[in-house]
Design goal:
- With about 725 residues, the chain is an alpha/beta fold.
- It folds into three domains: about 200 residues, Spore Coat Polysaccharide Biosynthesis Protein SpsA, Chain A (Alpha-Beta Complex); about 90 residues, no CATH class; about 375 residues, TIM Barrel (Alpha-Beta Barrel), CATH 3.20.20.70.
- Strands 14-13-12-11-10-9-15-16-17 form a nine-stranded mixed β-sheet, with helices on both faces. The protein has an eight-stranded mixed β-sheet with strand order 3-2-1-4-7-6-8-5, with helices on both faces.
- The longest helix has about 40 residues.
- The protein is elongated, with a radius of gyration of 29 Å.
Length: about 725
């Protein structure tokens, strides 16, 4: 039986074209497909038109863009193969069948098509655009730089494995970014000119020039960030870039000729345009083959003399957009100081640390994860907090010392960059923590760099999980090939250390019964990595479905802790790059000793500030004092998205009383950090460890500006 294909069409105010689009899709000669239309909060009557066709309709409550709509369509799909097209494109009857046939050529494969040479409407500018795009997308078909979503097919498993379309980038070019990301991850791009769609343009002269300006603007901004401005990239071809550059040179020559009256400028201008025409001879021949001499003459004049005005102006606007982003990234002043929170040592009335579980979704199923594999019942079902809800709760929260994201896999939130930006704007966290299993290398690198650029005054600490070396890591986490993907993530992220002084890259290992005998091997492996990262170890915790993972030999944990401490004291292990690294190292050593005593005694060893200085927020809005207690303070949705009101509820007061009476204990590193740094009784021991770490042994090549003390990253299942 033929594989089920899900044809996914995003629609935003497409009443003029969506009917023809769906008619063409339903006329496909492929025998086994479903048609899914995702309406992106349209404001016209397109939704009523869509409901007149035998298709599945997904409605987005808010306008989110084509990338979000396509991702929503994939979540609603059942097909083994995904085929994307646009609401203003009419697929040829054999397009889907041909794409499925080409996909049989291998795994990790993307297959794309292009526009037909003939436009839907007999307008000059529609015909020009059809030939223009068809020529440049197919001229290097065997080495396609990208595949566009007017006709794009790939396996559903490949799409999900690589994280889908980036929802919070530029408003267009999500297909270009997707293609580049998957190609860097090892996927092969196949352009088949026989897979075609007719595009409904409806262009006039003004619309054609506006389209050229808009595409050039965003493509320039994207290419500068992607370091491939001079690449021969489909419609952003070498010929078009040369055309725009020579138009600018010609304009300068005309101005000079008018100013000086010298006749030689005209000859130079003629020579430049002849060279331009020769460089674009392939496109000019395509104009002739498509519609004959009259069309070719008019299209040539438009391409050489008019269209580059829009493309060149768009390129300059894109350069300005890129430089503005760079200025925002580099010109925002010093880092947010943790000294703002010194008052919390005496006055513990407001949270300074928030752990936010962004999602329960995860692309791994680690057996020791306390969140996804807990013996406790899952939280009540409910949608993940949306971006506007997150902004409502962040706005009144106040400054944060440390914002720790958790899950699930945090990079599966398509709006992760925007979430970081919201907290950065409203709460000015000194540190933002991003733990990850590292299974989406390209996506992790791309989103991490955007976060670093958008949040320059916060330290962005990213922790990759390594729980074994090679196949042992894969077996423990039940993720075949996972170790290599983690290492690929490390290789992609490490160069960002030189570009972003606010970036901290580290490795975290979960200490459990299955790897406790191999900790020396893991420590040696991490120490041998290029640009050796800071290495933390988290003791497995929580009520796991298989308690065997928690049956650790505490003596082996103590030996691991002792070795980590010895390496730090000897200067053999790297510290973080900021000036507070020495305090961080001292706190780490003290913390691991405290964990050993808690585990041995089965009781708390210090006062706990959970619920006062620390809060935990679930993806559905439930608020907890810590990760280990199952009783909720309440839900932010029921309290006007104000965490300050939630912590004053009767349920919160009851739990805070239980914590004060020492009715619970845990070895959660994140909370122990707060219990140490904000407890004056711990300061003598902290000072002792600080003095044992001689400052002349801190590696100077890792030093960088800032005064933020790093915090231990301790999250099982990350």
């Amino acid at each position: 039986m033929s594989a089920l294909v899900s044809i996914i069409v995003p629609n935003r105010n497409g009443a003029a074209t969506i009917g023809r689009c769906l008619q063409a899709a339903l006329a496909s000669r492929y025998p086994n497909f479903e048609l899914i239309v995702v309406d992106d909060a349209s404001e016209d009557d397109s939704l009523e038109r869509i409901r007149g066709f035998p298709c599945r309709v997904v409605q987005l409550p808010r306008h989110g863009g084509a990338a979000r709509a396509r991702n929503a369509g994939v979540r609603a799909s059942r097909g083994e193969v995904l085929f994307f097209t646009d609401a203003d494109c009419l697929l040829e009857p054999d397009a889907v069948a041909r794409a499925v046939e080409r996909l049989r050529g291998g795994t990790e494969l993307l297959v794309g098509g292009t526009y037909t040479l003939a436009a839907c409407e007999p307008r000059f500018f529609d015909r020009f655009q059809s030939v223009f795009v068809h020529h440049f997308e197919t001229k290097r078909a065997p080495q396609a730089d990208y595949l566009a979503t007017h006709a794009l097919a790939l396996g559903a498993s490949t799409f999900r494995r690589h994280g889908g379309f980036a929802e919070y980038g530029l408003p267009i070019l999500e297909d270009v970014e997707f293609s580049h990301r998957l190609r860097r991850a090892g996927c092969r791009l196949v352009m088949d000119p026989a897979i075609r769609a007719r595009h409904v343009f409806g262009y006039t002269l003004g619309r054609s020039l506006r389209n050229g300006f808009r595409k050039a603007r965003y493509w320039t901004c994207y290419s500068l960030g992607n370091r491939d401005l001079l690449a021969d990239s489909g419609a952003a071809s070498h010929e078009l870039k040369l055309d725009a550059a020579l138009w600018c040179l010609s304009a300068a020559l005309i101005a000079a000729a008018l100013a000086t009256g010298a006749p030689g400028w005209a000859a130079a201008l003629f020579a430049i345009q002849c060279a331009n025409a020769y460089a674009s001879r392939g496109l000019l021949r395509a104009f002739y083959r498509a519609r004959g001499m009259a069309f070719a003459g008019a299209a040539t004049l438009y391409y050489l003399l008019v269209y580059p005005l829009a493309a060149g102006a768009g390129a300059l606007a894109g350069l300005w957009m890129y430089l503005a982003r760079e200025r925002r990234a580099l010109g925002n002043g010093p880092r947010y100081s943790p000294l703002r929170h010194l008052g919390a040592v005496a006055w513990k009335r407001r949270p300074v640390q928030l752990t936010f579980f962004l999602t329960r979704r995860c692309n791994a199923r680690c057996p020791f994860c306390f969140y996804l594999r807990s013996a406790d019942p899952a939280p009540a079902p409910g949608e993940e907090l949306a971006l506007d809800e997150i902004e409502r709760l962040a706005r009144p929260l106040g400054p944060l010392l440390w914002l720790a994201f958790s899950g699930g896999e945090v990079f599966l939130r398509q709006d992760l960059v925007e979430i970081c930006r919201l907290f950065y704007a409203h709460n000015r966290p000194a540190i933002m923590l991003l733990p990850t299993n590292g299974l989406l290398p390209e996506l992790i690198r791309e989103r991490t760099e955007r976060i670093l650029a958008e949040c320059p005054r916060s330290v962005i600490a990213l922790k990759l999980s390594v729980d074994g070396v090679g196949a042992e890591h894969d077996a423990l986490r039940a993720t075949p090939g996972g170790f290599e993907r983690v290492m690929q993530s490390y290789r992609l992220l490490a160069p960002l250390l030189a570009r972003y002084p606010n970036f901290e890259l580290g490795i975290n290992t979960v200490f459990c019964a299955s790897n406790q005998d191999r900790m020396d091997e893991i420590i040696d492996f991490v120490a041998g990595l290029p640009q050796a990262p800071a290495h933390t170890v988290s003791l497995v915790r929580g009520r796991l479905r298989d308690p065997g993972y928690a049956r650790v030999d505490i003596g082996k944990y103590e030996r691991t802790a002792a070795r980590l401490a010895a390496r730090l004291r000897a200067g053999a292990a790297p510290m973080y790059r900021f000036r507070g690294a020495r305090l961080k190292a001292a706190q780490d050593i003290l913390q691991r000793g405290l964990i050993s005593r808690i585990h041995a005694a089965g009781a708390r060893q210090t006062p706990c500030y959970a619920g006062r200085l620390n809060l935990v927020l679930s993806e559905t809005g439930e608020v907890y004092p810590c990760e280990m207690r199952a009783e909720t303070f309440g839900n932010v949705r029921a309290h006007g998205y104000d965490l300050r009101r939630v912590v004053r509820t009767a349920a919160a007061r009851a739990q805070l009383g239980a914590i004060a009476r020492r009715e619970c204990h845990c070895t959660h590193e994140c909370h122990l950090m707060t219990n140490i740094l904000f407890n004056p009784r711990c300061y003598p021991a902290l000072a002792k460890e600080w003095l044992r770490l001689r400052p002349d042994r801190v590696r100077p090549d890792r030093g960088a500006g800032g005064t933020v003390p790093a915090l231990p990253i301790a999250r099982t299942g990350s």
